[in-house]
Amino acid sequence: MRRPSRGLMLVLMAGGLAACSSVAPPAATPRLEPPPRYRVTLARSTLTADQQIVHVLGRLGYGARPGEVERLRAEGLSAWIERQLAPGRISDEAVEQALGAYPVLPLTAAELYRDYPPARPQDVQRFQAGQMTPQEIREVFPPNRRPAVITAQLQAAKLTRAVLSERQLEEVMVDFWLNHFNVYALKGPVRWMVPDYERRALRPHALGRFRDLVVATAQHPAMLYYLDNWLSTRDDFVLPPSRGGRKLGLNENYARELMELHTLGVDGGYTQQDVIEVARCFTGWTIDRPQQGGEFLFRPVTHDRGEKRVLGTVIPAGGGQDDGLAVIDLLVRHPSTARFISTKLVRRFVSDEPPPALVERAARTFRSTGGDIRAVLVTIFSAPEFISAEAQHAKVKTPLEVVASAARVLGVRLESPEEATQGRAAVMGGGAVLARQVAALGEPLYEAQAPTGHPDVAEAWVSASALLSRMNFALALAHNRLPGARVELAPFLEGVDRRQPAQVLDRLLAVVLRGQVSPDTRRVLGAQLENPEIVRATADDRGPRNTDVEKLTALVLGSPEFQRR
Amino acid sequence: MHGCTRRAFMKGGALSLLGLGAGLGGVPRFLVRAAYAQGAGPRPKVLIAVFQRGAVDGLSMVVPHGDPDYYPARGGIAIARPTAGASDATLDLDGFFGLHPAMAPLQPLWDARRLAVVHACGSPDTSRSHFDAQDYMESGTPGVKSTPDGWLARGLQAAPRPSPSPFRAVAMGSRLPRVLRGEAGAVAMNSIADFDVKSDAGQAMSGGVNTRRGFESMYEGGVRDLLYGTGRETFEAVKMLRSVSPEGLAPANGAHYPRGRFGDSLRQIAQLIRAEVGLEVAFADTGGWDTHAAQGAERGQLANRLTDFAQGLAALDRDLGDRMADVVVLTMSEFGRTVRENGNRGTDHGHATAMMVLGGPVRGGKVYGRWPGLRREQLFEGRDLAVTTDFRDLFAEVARRHLAVPATAPLFPGFAGKAAGYPGVLV
After folding, report:
1. In a domain, A468, yes or no
2. Contacts of residue B144 in chain A, CB cutoff 8 Å?
3. Is the CB of A249 inside 8 Å of chain B's CB atoms?
4. Interface membership of B211 toward A (CB under 8 Å)
5. pLDDT tens for residues B241-284?
6. How confident is the model at residue B203 (pLDDT cuts 50, 70, 90)?
7. Is A347 exposed, middle or buried (0-12, 13-18, 19+ CB in 10 A)?
8. Does residue B27 surpass a pLDDT of 60?
9. Is residue B215 one of the residues assigned to a domain?
10. Could you give the CA distance from residue A529 to residue A280 in angstroms, rounded to a whole number?
């Protein structure tokens, strides 16, 4: 039972107070105008040209695909980065076609609620009482119309984009903001709201203005529900007698996380009293019928009309819906916000321990441009710290990054549900199979329960369990045991004599790690060539003397080097 | 954590003598037991730390029904006063405090004096951020973010073993929690059955030994950082686990664990203890305690979480049976919740909460700590239950008395706590 009491919900949802309410326009338009062109000049670096390319592909995207290093060499690295900063101009037809397999993506919460409704309570009761056969359950609650389909398709789409999209930086940034402004898809009706949340609140602003992100998330039903602001009312609000006459009041949840996690950072200089004052400002920001996919709604009757004082600034009485916007303006202009967002971006793109000087420069850009995310990224990408030898391989890949980069480096073909023949892939396509691997490695996408989202530092992802899962993933992928994610290793071995295991290893190291491998790992892998599992020295009934390319590939994918970017 | 050194691995230790270091399992369990007996004694003391993430409402979990200000402050979410024979009301403990009715599975442990409560327990730091407060409770250094390791890891490090088991410290889950990060080394494990490198067919240990060996060698390299250190610990643990197969041990004494992640975690911790793999510190966490809206009263959202929590702990106690003589379970949560019900039949972030200590060595049947009262002027910042027991006093007592961590070891840097300040929950 996560839901509020029925009486309260009826009042807040049913529009009983709608006479004095106003429905706000959508928080964001789906597509922005083409942005101005941003120039990127990479700093001087001790890395070779190819090392720089591999580094950039692993930071601004999910790693290199076959032939991509050569293409970037021809295009020029700065030019490629500049293109990535304007994703709207990059054609992405392969992805658009592949995403056709996921009909939930363009739908609103109301449409999703209609197409993927929850099970009816009477069916749930009968099922729990053992009064229905599995066949009957499938008839009244068809598996392909269940709400769980929504998150499964979203997860599949995310992997599809990470693996296939030409707009790599946009995907990285959407993921970054999804964790920054985290919502938990499994809380109440949030599931029906998340596709719209990503599409309308995050994606259009992923490289845009920070303020637009804060406003769009603050007014999105997914966030309003997840952090309970839809329930928060002025402290003296009493429901009408016809609705039970109960006294409602403030809920601090969103106000606190807005400052702690979305803007200022936990040490950003706010007090408990600021939390209360911010919560007062956001009273009345609610959802019109949340259980049926309703939109953002400002409900004046539940709003606290009094004067507030936030971070020392007076917000005069009577501001209504604008109180919340005034708070957002205060917060996004606060120097703590510039520093906090810059720190997180530098951590994502440079190092778990962000170099303070670079954070300071990025924060300066943030302040001087009024929170222009693209401009902050240009500052980071142009920094010597970004393209430095210290930054190279400094980040341990997250589960999403390890799965997506392995699929990319091997040129994995993600089958559509029509092409795939087995299990989950036949229903949801290869992207869903990879998404399940990401979850098995510890990162269930859209399902981070805590408001901090999934972490972005090595120590969160390196553990005994996680390493074993990574190795098992490498084995499964290389052996084509993940239905719908087809690997063909033969093309990589063109011109290699498979009877010569050392040649095979050299080629695999070149393909998967671009030869960037430590002497230790090189030596250990070389020693594996004596392993009877890896190489059969003589011909037998399985064919000629041969190297087990799949197993060797798995070992390379499971190497410490491949866990880093 | 970059560049930190890790526990040196038992080269030449008991494990190598048994040939486990060479990468082959299949060693009889009694031999493994004997090997660890050299270092840790035949039945090491075990501490199981349980973290209720999200800030449990201590006032609903252990209800101060005798406080005259409890019912007025709590409105619709108060837990009904104890009534003889009523199962849907507070279960009285001592005339002043009582257990939430969903905690009924723990009542027999209270009656047997093996369950103690420390109420109004918490951190001297006033943060109401989940993230920071959890971090402080795990690092053991409230207000200090730069502490590199967790307090349990420091405790293990302060009581070194000549040939430590790779399973000396285990956290259930895919991530190693802050509390166990540090020099001592610890294993994070999702499930015992899946804790292996799987062969071509996806089956654990049906011919995967050599492939595992290949992975293992790569992580044996000289570079001592997080990735390599973890890799080495992992493979040691895999080999040992395969040699004792704890996953085959069915719950004993008719213990019945609740379905779900928390029950699974406790069930597997019990398996590791019963398989005698040398476990000394185990960690499990449980979520869903952040009840800002509609937390419910005798029934509802919070009651459901407490049912899972209490059933899990009761099953663990039953499963381990006599072995509980050497086991202490310590529960914790980053802070408590507001004394007053909020506008949505929930509670917001507060300050002190209740923690529990369970097991054979516990002086149970008592609620420890000074009760600060619930009148407005008695509350912290006029709204929250005040902290009267610093969590470090409780944790220090458990670590020092149960795990025999020397008093000189810096378990809680910057904290001058002394034995005189311990709550006194352990024999």
Report:
1. yes
2. none
3. yes
4. yes
5. 888 889 889 999 999 999 999 999 999 999 999 999 999 999 99
6. low
7. middle
8. no
9. no
10. 67
What would the pLDDT profile of B302-345 be if each residue is shown by its tens digit?
A: 999 999 999 999 999 999 999 999 999 999 999 999 999 999 99
CB-based contact B24:B32 (threshold 8 Å): no
- For A450, the closest chain B residue by CA position comes to B54
Reported confidence tier of residue A33, pLDDT bands at 50, 70, 90: low
Model confidence pLDDT, tens digit, residues B367-394: 999 999 999 999 999 999 999 999 999 9
Assigned domain for B427 exists: no
User: What is the DSSP pairing of strand B187-189 with strand B169-172?
Assistant: parallel
Across chain A, mean pLDDT equals 90
Q: Which of A2, A464, A564 sits opposite B230 (nearest CB)?
A: A464
- Residue of A462, A522, A557 for testing the chain B interface, max B β-carbons within 10 Å: A462
Q: What is the DSSP letter of A266?
A: T
Residue B404 lies in a domain: yes
The secondary structure element, H or E, covering residue B180 is none
Q: Which DSSP string corresponds to A178-192?
A: HHHT---TTSTTHHH
A563–B contact, CB cutoff 8 A: yes
State which H helix or E strand residue A408 sits in: helix A399-409
Mutation choice for B interface testing from A12, A351, A471 by most B CBs within 10 A: A471
Nearest-Cα residue of chain A relative to residue B343: A249
- From chain A, the residues in CB contact with B211 under 8 A are 475, 533, 551, 554-555
Domains contained in chain A, number: 2
Q: Is the pLDDT of residue B36 over 70?
A: no
Query: B389 - beta bridge partners?
Result: B121
Could you tell me which chain A residue has the CA closest to the CA of B189?
A465
DSSP one-letter string for A71-128: HHHHH-HHHHHHHHT-GGGS--HHHHHHHTT-TTTT--HHHHHHHSPPPPHHHHHHHH
Residue A4 has its nearest CB partner, among B198, B237, B345, at B345
Burial class (CB in 10 A: 0-12, 13-18, 19+), A314: exposed
User: Measured at the alpha carbon of residue B189, what is the angle toward residues B194 and B203, in degrees to the nearest 5?
Assistant: 10
Chain B's closest residue to A3, CA to CA, is: B294
Closest CB to B210 among A256, A531, A558? A531
Query: Which amino acid, B22?
Result: A
Of A197, A201, A109, A116, the residue nearest A152 (C-alpha): A116
Q: Residue B358 in contact with residue A261, Cβ under 8 Å?
A: no
Which tokens is B286 given? 């449980």
Q: Is the pLDDT of residue A280 over 70?
A: yes
- Burial of A108 per CB tally in 10 Å (0-12, 13-18, 19+): middle
Q: Which of B36, B29, B114, B52 is nearest to B337 (CA)?
A: B52
Give dist(CA A356, CA A347) in Å, integer.
Answer: 11
Instruction: Give the range of the structural domain holding residue B374, as residue numbers without chain letter.
Output: 42-199+245-421
Distance between CA atoms of A463 and B234, rounded to whole angstroms? 8
Would you tell me how many other CB atoms lie within 10 Å of the CB of residue A130? 7
Q: Which domain holds residue A456?
A: 399-487
Cross-chain residue pair B128–A441, CB shorter than 8 Å: no
Answer whether residue A208 shows pLDDT above 50. Answer: yes
Q: Which of A253, A462, A521 sits opposite B230 (nearest CB)?
A: A462
Is A337 in a helix, a strand, or coil? helix
A273 to chain B, any CB pair closer than 8 A? The answer is no
What CATH number does residue B412 fall under?
3.40.720
pLDDT band at B160; cut points 50, 70, 90: confident
Q: Which two tokens stand for residue A70?
A: 């050569």
> Looking at the domain assignment, is residue A469 inside a domain?
yes
Locate the chain B residue with the closest alpha carbon to A440.
Answer: B174
Structural domains in chain B (count): 1
- Most B CBs within 10 A among A259, A463, A556, hence the mutation to make, goes to A463
